[in-house]
Amino acid sequence: MRAGLGMALACLMLHTTVFARAQAAPDRFQPVKERVLPERFPDKPSLPPVFSIPVEPLGFSAPGEYYLSSRISLASLDFIDEDRLLFTFRVPGLIRRRPQTADNEESDERQIRAVVLTLPAGNVESEGLWSVHDHVRYLWMLNHGHFLLRDRNNLMEGDATLELKPWLRFPGPVRWLDLDPMKQFLVTNSLEPQATASKPGDVSSPASAAATVTVDGQQSPGKSNPAQPDLVVRIMRRDSAKVMLVSRVRSPVRLPVNADGYLENLRTTGTGWVLNLNYFTGGSRILGRVDSACTPTSEFISQQLVLATTCSPSGGHSLVALTTDGRTLWSDLNPGSAVWPEVTRSPGGQRIARETLAVTHPISSYAPLEKDDIKGQLVRIFDAATGEMAFESPASPVLDAGGNVAISPSGRRVAVLNAGAIQVFELPPPPPLPDGASSQPGH
Fold first, then answer.
1. pLDDT band, residue 253 (cuts 50/70/90)
2. Would you state the pLDDT for residue 228?
3. Which CATH number do you get for residue 214?
């Protein structure tokens, strides 16, 4: 009883402090005029591709309608450098079902083909075949052409040769993973029931890292709580695999991180929310304030630029760009007919790709999404400094879990899987990020 009361008082004090801070500096976060994006669904790209690479000769075939709306990760498309692409995709065939694993889930093995393509000819420089055992995202790019491949509780590192080397093993299956824009820190969610026994070589959770992680104003239970949930969230240094923060949570947690700390969204009053940066070194600071009818999502586009996605009462979604020094750069309103957004950023953070499903009506509990409501998939490229739309294109086949668009390191090339080919487009140089939104650590 006392522990529960103490937790409630701690959360109340946190919200009171945040609310007081937000009210004490009303002039710090000035709203900007919202730009309304068009509702149309384009029938062709806004620019012609400079070259196209047919994907059928590579072994890719469009997934059937069975996969539509299932959010299964079926492909990934990434630039290794300006002149090479990494394209991976599910190889069609029978799914090998194996007995249930220790966490009482069926193990579905599927084959992933990987190819490195040179531009502009599209020649195959290297190729490989991997096995993964679930349906969620499996690949994340690192710096200098390296990448992480996730399978169950294992993380492997690869490069342009497509040779994989074991890197980290977790005590349980990794359910979600993300990196900061500079690829220095790793955030993971893994399924580890309390009775899970660690093996030699597993990622550890030292007592020095046994801190509670505050998420949306609610502290997750620490190790002293006897009724511990099964999901473990960790923040780790990628170079040393040192665990900095660890806690058990009741549901998957997405913690946006930069080189300074992790970000949370806290409600103030009504539809008001503040973005609060918790420093790894201790303490916190409010970065900005947004209005949203739902819990907003946020992510770091660069070390000092945050993209928040908010909900309007009419069903649309706004993209709001804020800097870590408290400035709101721009706000774009997306129509309610664009749903299930997936965001990709260029390595330097100068450009943002946002892909959505174009549907016939806004989706709600009263008007759920049906397969017949999907008109197609839309890719839009934004300049991170201004919010201006630099390019748009349909993407086909529809891959509702993303993985069909990539931006090159310079931000000038965009690759889209569309109309039976990887189409590559050349854009003008992106405008530079403003002072205070660069990629250098700021704390």
1. confident
2. 66
3. 2.130.10.10
Give one DSSP letter per residue of 304-322, joined into a string.
Answer: TEEEEEEE-TTS-EEEEEE
59 Rama sector, left if φ>0, alpha if ψ -120 to 50, beta otherwise: left
Q: Is residue 420 part of a domain?
A: yes
Strand segments, DSSP code E, in 231-291 are 231-237, 243-249, 261-267, 272-279, 284-291
CA distances from 230 to 92, 170, 175, 425, 439 (A): 33, 14, 12, 45, 35
Quickly count helices (H) and strands (E) in the chain.
1, 31
Residue range of the domain that includes 130: 2-426
**Cα 239–chain centre separation:** 21
Which region among 113-122, 224-233, 236-245, 282-291 has the lowest average model confidence (pLDDT)? Answer: 224-233
Task: Give the whole-angstrom CA distance, residue 256 versus residue 378.
Answer: 25
- Provide the token pair at 211: 């801190």
pTM, 2 dp:
0.86
For residue 442, tell me if it sits in a domain: no
How many angstroms separate the Cα of 204 from the Cα of each of 60, 163, 198, 210, 282? 39, 26, 8, 11, 22
Element (H, E) at 34: strand 34-36
User: At 164, is the secondary structure helix, strand, or coil?
Assistant: strand
What is the rounded average pLDDT for all residues in the chain?
85
CA atoms within 13 A on the CB side of 219: 22
Most confident of 19-28, 126-135, 194-203, 354-363: 126-135
Asked if 321 contacts 306 with a C-beta cutoff of 8 angstroms, the reply is: yes
* Higher pLDDT among residues 198 and 233, named by residue: 233
Instruction: Tell me if 119 is assigned to some domain.
Output: yes
In a domain, 170, yes or no: yes
Helix (H, G, I), strand (E, B) or coil at 360: coil
Domain count, the chain: 1
Q: Checking DSSP bridges between strand 328-334 and strand 34-36, what pairing results, if any?
A: parallel
